[in-house]
């Protein structure tokens, strides 16, 4: 293609994902011309440390000066894979307002400032795409914003954090405790040195906010998402789950109900026959329910150098086509509704509750009365004697509002016959 247009790219960040993007663009350069009608050329790569030697990367492309990218009129696409809020937010905003198209993988930023970034994109008539911000290489944002647009979507649920899924898989299949499984995940590179964002559900919460906003056409911020991690899951919980034919997964879930949007991330017991129960190790999967399509499931690698780079480069190719056809900015902020966010206390869930109680007559009746007084209906009871004076009591509830259950548990904690509330896990 002798007269092929060449589109220049600025890459912000050269960590794991940035390196993958660099590799993949190089690997696919000839095919990209055929698929998009233009050649791509990375002109500048913004890095923090210019002295660091990066194998396989043209050192002449490196810069630590943002102005070399933002002030270069030849650069039409900016790829942001630095992560974090600042300076990424300022750089993306400046690029979009200047008419440069932006592709980002920054879930932290998009989950909180998506509206502002789309406003900047509108001002610059530019594309702002972020497929890689959720579920790595799995296509989910484009399906929600385009392929499934003919649906009224009322529920999204899934496993969107590979680290916690790996940990729970090892706890179930290999009998590891949480600490041991986390150490293994760290050794294999699935967990960061500080795993808080993963194991406390924060990473998944940001992804739920982005998916809910895209699916329900109403802004959901990370601060609107209830988050709870997996650090309290024990071997005893795993054993009970197995006995009941369940597995425990960290589930992100968002529902568009008549009373508002529900959004949360928390460990859930799900039936081992449910498709999500078979999602193992570091894989991710997302279920979407629409009124026309019914149930759809998206499954694959949720993180990693090349899976995430796959999503970034897919967005870059989409932007390239739009530049070739002079139609950038055609898909903007789609959250045109202003739906209320339901208080999590009003959300209904079923619960698995494990507690240590006195081993004496009348205990179960007293506990059942407290639950009944707070509108909590009991579906099943399992009682196992742990020691002569103590017994372990497991209670499964019907769907109940969160605040009714919490009120009941607060009263139970004050009762002398209850020595400990050991576990509280939601059930699907």
Automatic annotation (TrEMBL):
Binding-site positions, L-homoserine: 192
Domain ACT: 352-426
An MF annotation (GO) of this entry: NADP binding
Keyword Iron belongs to the record: no
InterPro entries linked to this entry: ACT-like_dom_sf, ACT_dom, Asp/hSer_DH_NAD-bd, HDH, HDH_cat, HDH_CS, NAD(P)-bd_dom_sf
One Pfam family from the record: Homoserine_dh
GO biological process: methionine biosynthetic process; threonine biosynthetic process
Entry keywords, A to Z: Amino-acid biosynthesis, Metal-binding, Methionine biosynthesis, NAD, NADP, Oxidoreductase, Sodium, Threonine biosynthesis
PROSITE patterns: ACT, HOMOSER_DHGENASE
Reaction catalysis annotation: L-homoserine + NADP(+) = L-aspartate 4-semialdehyde + NADPH + H(+)
Domain of life: Bacteria
SUPFAM superfamilies found in the cross-reference section: ACT-like, Glyceraldehyde-3-phosphate dehydrogenase-like, C-terminal domain, NAD(P)-binding Rossmann-fold domains
Active site: 207 (proton donor)
EC number: 1.1.1.3
Pathway listed: Amino-acid biosynthesis; L-threonine biosynthesis; L-threonine from L-aspartate: step 3/5; Amino-acid biosynthesis; L-methionine biosynthesis via de novo pathway; L-homoserine from L-aspartate: step 3/3
Residues annotated as binding NADP(+): 12-19
Cofactor: a metal cation
Enzyme's top EC category: oxidoreductase
Binding positions (NADPH): 107
NCBIfam families given in the database record: PRK06349.1 (NF004976)
Family membership: Belongs to the homoserine dehydrogenase family.
Full protein name: Homoserine dehydrogenase
Source organism of this protein record: Coprococcus comes
